[in-house]
Design a protein that fits this description.
210 residues; alpha+beta; 4-stranded antiparallel sheet; 4 helices; 9 strands
Amino acid sequence: MIISLILLITGLSMLLFGLRALFKRRLLTGAMTVLIGLPFVLFGFFLLLLATNFYTYQKLTHEMTVARIISQKTEAGFQVGIEHSHANNEKFILSTDQWQLDARFVKFKPWTIMFGSEPLVRLERFSGRHNDTDKVVKNSYEFTAGGSLLLNLSNQLVDMSGLIDTYFGSSVYMPLADGAEYLVTASVSGLVARPVNAQAENAVSVWMSQ
């Protein structure tokens, strides 16, 4: 980005100098300066477009950490600990095959990415989930609305200015296993969960083969 700006400034300065020379009828000096300055401008503009596209791509694919989920096998099922921005650590009991995390998103207009904007995320619910759809899920927990104030302020202050693109909900689920650890991140598209250790990777492998 800096190199492209330097090239643009240098090239534009040479173009202006060359045009001034041409205006004063110093044809050879003016023509040579313009011919040298023009490639600087074109190459600088090309690098600027390249850097802008790369920066936009990074922002579109950027993921921020939302939660870390660790499960331990117990007699009652699984004790699941969650570390997230709303609290240091919360523990839940699940008697299911999988866990599921639900969140609410506020997504801003695509052009605001150039200014470093990220979606606002509020965790809403953590629950169990069965492979067998006939089984009833009894474990469902609501998160404390720690992010509701930020979400409400964004609605009131930003929505009127037209910066908000949309509101949407996103969910992610993964299999439970003894000692399994998962990292949940958020992007402009929603939630993403990834296994962190071998126990989680093995659980996902078995789950995907079913």
